[in-house]
């Protein structure tokens, strides 16, 4: 059985006027179907590059990115993406914004079925009654919920979340974390979350991948125990405190502020 996502020996560099800028160096990562992996690391270490490689928007210089055992060679309709900026179209209603991927991705749904699918997702994230509003009439958190619905409306196998909650205030962000758990219970997908928030990583994911400084490699893997349904109280347990301490130390290593194990201080 193949993992849903498998990254093998991926190396990638960007071309610059002063020469190649290595970003990823022999990256390894594996995620089983239905899993949820959070990727953390220093700023500029290649986290967003990783999302582009998984989605097929870019090809690695070396190595392989595979979905369901097949090498990714271009954009795939089975991948959904949500970003920090929701980028909703102001001239379309929230319902029409959510439906947009179904107008692009080939499917057999009727117009009524497309609308039913979009309304179901909006209800799931707490936006029932806002279907006919314009994006400017919604708060930042509400727009991000609509963006999440748009990323899921075509039932992708893989959902990539590139810091979707990073620009929100703390209370809204925590509310959306809980919404994500509700969505995950009702929508089957394999998730990849890019984040700088370690609390977000251990609350949402079942695996946290720590990338090293650029050029990035897989520095550390943390498995988050399955303790059943999570609520915010889980973030204040001794187990959560221990995981956060481990991750903070790994980030310090990646930033060069702490020696790796086996190195002299």
Provide the structure class: alpha/beta
Q: Helicity range of the residues?
A: 25-40%
- Rounded mean pLDDT is 89
Distance between the termini: 43 Å
Care to count the β-strands? 10
Radius of gyration: 19 Å
Q: What do you see in this structure?
A:
It is a single chain. 33% of the residues lie in helices and 24% in strands. By secondary structure, it is an alpha/beta fold. The protein has a domain at 1-78 and 204-259: P-loop containing nucleotide triphosphate hydrolases (Rossmann fold). The strands form two sheets. It has a six-stranded mixed sheet with strand order 6-7-8-3-9-10, with helices on both faces. The N and C termini lie far apart (43 Å).
In short:
The protein has 265 residues and is α/β, with parallel strands linked by helices. The chain has helices spanning 47-55, 94-104, 111-124, 140-152, 170-186, 198-204, 238-254, and strands at residues 5-16, 19-31, 36-40, 62-67, 70-71, 79-83, 158-162, 190-194, 207-211, 218-223. It has a domain at 1-78 and 204-259: P-loop containing nucleotide triphosphate hydrolases (Rossmann fold, 3-Layer(aba) Sandwich), CATH 3.40.50.300.
Q: What structural keywords apply?
A:
265 residues, alpha/beta, Rossmann fold, 7 helices
Layout of helices and strands, plus pairs?
Layout: E1 5-16, E2 19-31, E3 36-40, H1 47-55, E4 62-67, E5 70-71, E6 79-83, H2 94-104, H3 111-124, H4 140-152, E7 158-162, H5 170-186, E8 190-194, H6 198-204, E9 207-211, E10 218-223, H7 238-254
Parallel strand pairs: 3-8, 3-9, 6-7, 7-8
Antiparallel strand pairs: 1-2, 1-4, 4-5, 9-10
Helix pairs in contact: 2-3, 2-4
């Amino acid at each position: 059985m193949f993992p849903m996502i498998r990254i093998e020996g991926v190396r990638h560099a960007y071309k610059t006027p002063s020469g190649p800028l290595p970003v990823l160096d022999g990256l390894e990562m594996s995620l089983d179907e239905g899993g949820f992996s959070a990727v953390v690391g220093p700023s500029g270490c290649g986290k967003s590059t990783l999302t582009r490689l998984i989605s097929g928007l870019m090809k690695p210089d070396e190595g392989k990115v595979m979905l369901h055992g097949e090498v990714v060679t271009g954009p795939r309709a089975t991948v959904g993406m949500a970003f920090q900026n929701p980028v909703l179209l102001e001239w379309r209603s929230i319902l029409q914004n959510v439906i947009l991927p179904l107008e692009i991705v080939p499917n057999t749904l009727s117009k009524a079925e497309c609308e039913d699918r979009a309304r179901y997702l909006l209800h799931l994230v707490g936006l029932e009654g806002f279907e006919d509003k314009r994006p400017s009439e919604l708060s930042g958190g509400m727009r991000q919920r609509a963006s999440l619905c748009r990323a899921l409306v075509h039932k992708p196998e893989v959902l990539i979340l590139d810091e979707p909650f990073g620009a929100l205030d703390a209370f809204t962000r925590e509310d959306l974390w809980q919404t994500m758990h509700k969505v995950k219970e009702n929508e089957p997908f394999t998730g990849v979350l890019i984040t700088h928030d370690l609390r977000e990583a251990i609350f949402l994911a079942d695996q946290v991948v720590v990338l090293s400084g650029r050029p990035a490699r897989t520095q550390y893997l943390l498995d988050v125990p399955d303790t059943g349904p999570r609520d915010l109280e889980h973030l204040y347990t001794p187990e959560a405190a221990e995981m956060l301490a481990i991750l903070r130390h790994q980030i310090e290593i990646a930033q060069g502020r702490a020696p790796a194990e086996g190195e002299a201080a």
